[in-house]
Amino acid sequence: MEPTSHDVLLVIDVQNDFCPGGQLAVAGGDCVIEPIHRIAPRFEHIVVTQDWHPANHLSFASAHPGKKPYEQIALSYGPQTLWPDHCVQGTPGAELHPALHLPQAELILRKGFRREIDSYSAFFENDRATPTGLAGYLRERGLTRVFLAGLAYDFCVGYSALDARRLGLEAVVIRDACRAIDLNGSVRKMDAEFEKSGVVLAKSEAPVG
């Protein structure tokens, strides 16, 4: 089944800092660009997201003296993995990868700009309650199925897919158009969550729901 006018391709965080040479590089992160370009012409609607953190963001290990990247701490909204400083507003690392060419994208959604809370999902910040506005945007435009690609499979892509399901949207993750961090078994955990919530996995050659 080909994507229809009610489908949207959600391209998650294909930014310099998540690609090789970046501050939080995902192995093979830039390899998602070719399959994204391959499937993009099939979609009438495309939305792109950008991580967009202030310099002193609370998810940065540097904001917590004595803490190191990838440690976990408890914040008001629950457990938080601490990350290297990345995707700081206005820096080259926060820019979309220069090889990503999606001029037909209708919206660029920035997330993670509130200092006190991280934002993996394109729909909600990490308290799972504060909306980004994407759900309303899709609803008003009559878009009911989300295809997801980008970085990283087991964090921002994954949480976006799960939130899409939570909102009653169909969600299809284009697996070969994603790359993962795989921190402490996070890929296995995300796979299990997908199966439980009804997120569909597909390949870029035939993204079907």
Descriptors for this entry?
209 residues; alpha/beta; six-stranded parallel sheet; two-stranded antiparallel ribbon; 4 helices
Counting DSSP E segments of at least 2 residues, the number of strands comes to 8
**Largest beta sheet: strand ordering:** 5-2-1-6-7-8
* SSE order, one letter for each helix or strand: EHEEEEHEHEHE
Average pLDDT number? 95
Q: Judging from the principal axes of the Cα atoms, what is the shape?
A: globular
Distance between the termini: 7 Å
Total of helices = 4
- Judged by helices, strands and strand pairing, the structural class is alpha/beta
For the sheet with most strands, the description reads: 6 strands, parallel
What proportion of the residues is helical, as a percent range? 10-25%
Parts with pLDDT < 50 across at least 5 consecutive residues: none
Estimate what percentage of residues fall within beta strands. 15-25%
Cα radius of gyration in angstroms: 16 Å
Q: Topology, please?
A:
Elements: E1 7-12, H1 33-39, E2 46-51, E3 72-75, E4 78-81, E5 107-111, H2 134-140, E6 145-151, H3 153-166, E7 170-179, H4 186-197, E8 200-202
Parallel strand pairs: 1-2, 1-6, 2-5, 6-7, 7-8
Antiparallel strand pairs: 3-4
